[in-house]
Amino acid sequence: MITVVGTGTGAPPPEDVLAGAELVVGGRRHLDAVRLPGTAERVVLGPLAPALDTVAEYVGKERPVVVLASGDPGFFGIVRALAERFGPERLDVRPGVSSVAAAFARVGLPWDDAVVASAHGRELRTAVNVCRAHPKVAVLTGPGTGPAELGAALRADPRILVVASGLGSARERVERVTPAEAAARDWGTAVSVVLCLDERRALGPVRAVAGPLVESAGWALDEAAFAHRDSMITKFEVRALALARLGPRPGDLVWDVGAGSGSVGVECARLGAAVTAVEKTRDGVERIRANAAAHGVDVRVVHGAAPAVLSDLDDPDAVFVGGGGRELPAVVTACARRARRSVVVAMAALDRVPAARAALLGAGLECDGVLLQSSRLAPLPGDVTRLAATNPVFLLWGVRPAARDEGVVQ
Predict the structure, then answer these.
(1) pTM of the entire structure?
(2) What count of other Cβ atoms lies within 10 Å of the Cβ of residue 209?
(3) Full strand arrangement of the beta sheet holding 41-44
(4) Are 243 and 264 in contact (CB under 8 A)?
(5) CATH architecture for segment(s) 223-405
(6) Lowest-pLDDT range, 63-72, 129-138, 329-338, 398-407?
């Protein structure tokens, strides 16, 4: 049997558990904080594979093993690796208070509506995009992905970072800083977790289901759900297929270029992605902000003309191009060179299709497309109905082959 004990932010491990252990595995600070049996072998966790091999030797001989971990080891912790290697039936898990729960407790906030992202041993960009998209996020940090790096990435976002260090120890410290202040400091190695908060929305409504709030399961919303100018909005039939090809999800960054009303960007944000909308007109910028606020989502709006303004933005996972005019080939080229997964282009003008397709192919993307034509039900006098045709739209999409090979694109 492997007894997995969570410690660090709660009570110390029970002495009777340690007393019978023949092998104790844990981080150096965990091992130094407890009294071990004189006959027990100790393994300081570094690379996980050698430690698991040692555990396997003891388990194979039915000798008791204790693994010490921080907080709740079943929450982004070692329980997953142990269960995969030895099977959950061999584990006796005794969780402590997780660093996430402790950090939210220190600032007096509930966390049933929080999103938790791990940047420990992982790429930081996913956690950054989750922080951009949601008002209450806990980030588990690691070397090279700590408060300074997170703050540097979030400088332009209206967020407060709560940096919790040494939780449960005599050196515990909880500090509220701006992203810029976080970026300017050396935080050392004692950071337990970082909370990223939009303090205006840190107290959400009463919940029946934990996790980020999803306003509605609906998507491809009616045009009436958005403020727009003279019907200059991506129609819901086009938006439905565009969203399917973009595949927005939590942790993604989506560009909405030539955003207009921002309907595509807002819908991507409603599905959990971080969104940057690029719009060259001042009234369009205000319209996008109003639509994002009306739907309760965060959309960063950049006022400027593509492709020039794109150079200052972080690389996106997916891009929707809904405008561009004569600059469309250059805009699509710039987007296609930087998109990690896909680019979707909507065009009403037939003449622009070949150049947009060439731009997608020239950037190494696999290209496909469709002409969308639809007719909607419309009332006529006498309580009868006719079909009213909408303007046909070409939708092209390019997919990076590596993304398809990795199963990212369905």
Answers:
(1) 0.85
(2) 8
(3) 41-44, 23-26, 65-70, 2-7, 91-94
(4) yes
(5) 3-Layer(aba) Sandwich (3.40)
(6) 398-407
